[in-house]
Design brief:
This protein is of the alpha+beta class. 31% of the residues lie in helices and 26% in strands. The protein contains six helices and eleven strands. It has a five-stranded mixed sheet with strand order 1-3-4-7-8. A three-stranded antiparallel sheet has the order 2-6-5. The protein has a three-stranded antiparallel sheet with strand order 9-11-10. A hairpin with a 2-residue loop joins β7 and β8. The two termini are 25 Å apart.
Amino acid sequence: MKSKSGILTNTITDGAYSKMIERINSNQNPNFFFLTYTKQWAVNNFLIIPKQFFTTDIIIKRKPLDQTARRAGWVGCNIDISNVVEAGKIFIIKNSNLIDKKIVETSFNKTLFLREKNVGSKGWIIDIMTCVDSIKKEQFSLDEVYKFEDKLKLKYPNNNFIKDKIRQQLQTLRDKGIIEFIGRGNYKKVIL
């Protein structure tokens, strides 16, 4: 858990980079909790990022400490939660408002299936979730997701069937209740 006074920012300072990467890539990576509070000790935000969303993509390596530093050469990291998909940010308290327990439980449980996926499969699903999040409206079309084909091709240069993979992952997200298929190549984000 990380906590601080003030507002919840996208970049959160953390510890050693190598240990963080080692932990994320292990089978024992934890869920992460982030809490912000006021000077009067009232909680502003209390957020869970389930471990299935903690990937190396959200860890930013900091430059090593200077040779004059007490721990010269030590390399820390920052956590960039702006790179976490919306389904991976589960608020218990948001803007000082307590979120209904059933909404928190449903949100948390809806993506537990990702824990069963291997790194490659999980990566694809999260990447498609990121594409869907980038479409800033509740309803979207398959063609709108296809616009991310070039970006996905850069990340997966050995995959010659990007559009097929996009459709496959959208079906997975539909089956898991994260999006809804509304017909004729159109989808709707499921909002809790």
